Amino acid sequence: MRYDYIFVGITLTIAVISLLISLLVFMNVRKSKGIWQIGFLFVLEFIYALGYLFECVFSTLELKMFANHFQYLALPFFAITWLYIAKKFQNHHFVPNLKKTFPLLIIPIMVFITAELSFFTPVNLYYTNESIDWSWMMGNVSFPVLYLEKGVFYYLNSISNLFLTSFVFYVYIRIFFQTSGIRKKQSLALGLSSLLGIVAIIFTLFSPVSTGLDTAFFIIVITGFVTLYSIMKYEIIDLKPSAYLASFELSTDPIFAVDDKFDIVDWNQSAESFFSSSENGFYHESINTVFKDSELTDAVLNDLPYSYKYKGKHFIVEAVLIGKTEGKNSGYLIKLNDMTSYMERLENLRYDATHDVLTKILNRRAFLEQLNLYLENKTHKDLSYSIIMIDIDDFKYVNDNYGHVAGDYVLQEFSRLVSEMIPKEGVFARFGGEEFTILLRSGDKTSSLALGELIRQKIESSLFVGDHFQTKIKISVGASVHTPGCEHTVSQCIQLADEALYQSKKNGKNQVTVTIADTIKQN
Fold first, then answer.
1. Of all residues in the chain, what percent are helix, strand and coil, respectively (each to 5)?
2. pLDDT tens string 227-264
3. What 3-state class would DSSP assign to 122?
4. Is the dihedral angle over the CA atoms 284, 285, 287, 288 positive or is it negative?
5. Exposure winner among 13, 63, 468, 513, fewest CB in 10 A?
6. 224-261 core/surface letters (b: 16 or more CB in 10 A; e: else)
7. Does domain 255-342 have CATH number 3.40.630.30?
8. Helices then strands (H, E): number in the chain?
């Protein structure tokens, strides 16, 4: 078996794989999330592998040295690249500082220059002597290798690489002890690979010559692939599929994938469990058949959010364009974002903001907003309306004799009784304390007086019975009727109704006073 052929084939394979990896990283630099440095590392590996391949294949000293020089287009810059990757791994936002980086590049540049000048020029600072060693055997076949005596700059390069690689090891081990989870595993693998590089560099310091198979080549290749695997394994091979699985299959929100005709081609478990489906699921059913809402597709096409209610749930439908083929939309990912709890909280907040805590009817602010909206509506200008103010007579007597708990109970029961008598066109609210108000849309003098009297009589005849007390109360009512075109403001409406209520109080309480508001004269 020709082991030399196998060895050359392996070296060629490493070169090709390194080139393909670097191309894939650079072609997908946006998707690589900032690991383009890995692509540069594999460019260096490709150059190194290709140069070593030529060195193994060529038989003359001149050609082998030419191949060796080709390797040194990459060799001096491996350690500095490892350092850059380590710093980038430590801090994703790391940007090299030129003043700090340039001193680290001085030795690699000097090594590059002296290595390129050796053999072909009188400058022998990197290698002092070069020849071919024909005694090296691979199997039963002689495998000629370079015999190189090391110069000053060779050792300078080794010491520099030892320093940089040791610092890389320190960076990864520090991250290992400071983090947990995936980054801890990544930093451990990267630290061990840099430790392998440290050991290899140390061995080069104890021999005055370099000959035989280049073990540094394999160590650098292994380090490169460990770096690639460590960074990409957890993030791309493990985390990304898990992220896609979590965002689609394991999502608690129903998700559908539809084609350009809005026929369903895929769906997640939440969609299947929430919507009833046939034996074959939803495959190639129209999305409108499932949602039973033809306006949905219009919202998707117009890139608009869409509110959808189904089975007591409130969803906001979000559509994401999957892609385009020949200028046409390929399909959409339709997600139903469950907003039920959010909408319930929002509704509760809205209720709390507009309702009285004790009586559960509208509060003063909500009533004034309702009145303002009514007055601003131009369609109501030709209609009459009335504002009715109600005050519980001598309510202080209830609090003083039975306590505030009894007073609260009376207010609650009073609100419940009056709410049952308010017509559909009425708005009932607690205006403050024991004072209440009603907006009677389309109310005139007759209907306002009738409603006022109905409420007064009902309350007068009612007995309010609590745990340890019972009492009866009476009310005074004042109503201001506003005829079409009166142009009264909200505050004027309230003031006029309050004046009518004051008149009922002044005339002896427990009665209803209705006034017709004068029309405001326009200048």
1. 55, 20, 25
2. 877 776 655 545 555 666 677 777 888 888 888 888 88
3. coil
4. positive
5. 468
6. bbbbbebbbbbbeeeeeeeeeeeebeebebbbbbbbee
7. no
8. 18, 17
Tokens 């609590």 sit at which residue? Answer: 466
Q: How many of the other CB atoms lie within 10 Å of CB of 314?
A: 19
| Token pair in block for residue 143 | 């495998």
Tell me whether strands 512-516 and 475-482 are parallel, antiparallel or unpaired. Answer: parallel
Integer Cα distance of 441 and 499 in angstroms: 20
What is the spatial distance between Cα 55 and Cα 136, in angstroms, rounded to a whole number?
14
Nearest CA to 479 out of 375, 387, 390, 364 is that of 387
Phi-psi region of 500 (alpha: psi -120 to 50; beta: other; left: phi over 0): alpha
Question: Could you please report the per-residue DSSP string of 3-45?
Answer: HHHHHHHHHHHHHHHHHHHHHHHHHTTTTTTT-HHHHHHHHHH
Q: What is the pTM of this model?
A: 0.53
Domain range 355-516, its CATH number among 3.30.70.360, 3.30.70.270, 3.10.129.10, 3.40.710.10: 3.30.70.270
Nearest to 172 by CA among 156, 153, 185: 185
Q: Which residue has the tokens 């039963």?
A: 140
**Maximum distance among all Cα pairs of the chain, rounded to whole angstroms:** 130
Q: In the chain, where are the structural domains located?
A: 3-247, 255-342, 355-516
Residue 68's SS3 state is: helix
The H-assigned helical ranges of 362-507 are: 364-376, 395-402, 404-421, 445-461, 490-506
